Amino acid sequence: MLALIGEKLSGVYVLASSGKAVKERFVPQVGEVIDRYGSANGRYTSPVIDGKSFSYTERSLPYVEDASSYHQYKVVGDFTKIEEYVKNCTDVKLKTRLHASVKKYYKGDYSRLISYKGEVALVEGWGTGGATQYEISLSVE
Length: 141
Hints:
The protein has helices at 82-88, 92-106; strands at 4-5, 8-9, 23-26, 33-37, 44-47, 70-74, 115-119, 132-135. The chain has 141 residues and is α+β, with helices and mostly antiparallel strands.
């Protein structure tokens, strides 16, 4: 996904005049509901606020809207304790897969698992932008 501000492209976020994405670190809260369109194994989500999802247009998604590719999730664990959860996980297959992802993308350093949030930019031909976008460090799958 791309975000367009002036003539610049960068990720999914609105860009500052410096050309850097305007996003901030954040921790998803237990009980929060998030959603996404696309495959179930992505890292980009949006919050569901008071039961309302951001529209496809507000997300500036580049493909045809497909309700069958909509996924909704509830945050059930503390994102600051991911390493502890993986360490204590009794599902060997899941534990192995998560540890492999952290090793591959973060050099095995769980402290590098950082989530960000920011505003989705308008992208000509895709959408108006304006949605809140969460970028989480591991797939929601």
